[in-house]
Amino acid sequence: MRRTGYVYDERYLRHDPGAWHPERPDRLKAIQKNLQESGLTDLVTPIQPYEAPLKWVERLHDPDYIRRFREACAQGKNIFEVPDCGICPESYDIALLAA
User: Fold this and answer.
1) For a tag site, which of 31, 58, 83, 96 has the least CB within 10 Å?
2) Which domain covers residue 25, as residue numbers?
3) SS3 state at 25
4) 4 neighbors 43 (Cβ within 8 angstroms)
5) Per-residue pLDDT tens for 38-70?
6) Is residue 31 part of a domain?
7) Considering the entire predicted model, what is its pTM?
8) For 70-86, what is the mean pLDDT?
């Protein structure tokens, strides 16, 4: 019986904070490849993610912070507030999907 869930979606690859950043899509591709090649994906229950309702996210993050993050993504910025927080235009939507 499978008891471990595994959440993954190809849309996660759209969060591309840049080639310099450890959260770049290549990292997820490598993890997914290794899980498949090792057979571990056969041992887990796949879970399809869904976009978290904003009210859930607001329980953990200040609404003003969420607004600033959404605006930074919409403006095409590649850094959010601190140098090691790389973002891209898709980061807001993918963050809700991954929440």
Assistant:
1) 83
2) 7-98
3) helix
4) yes
5) 999 999 999 999 999 999 999 999 999 999 999
6) yes
7) 0.89
8) 97
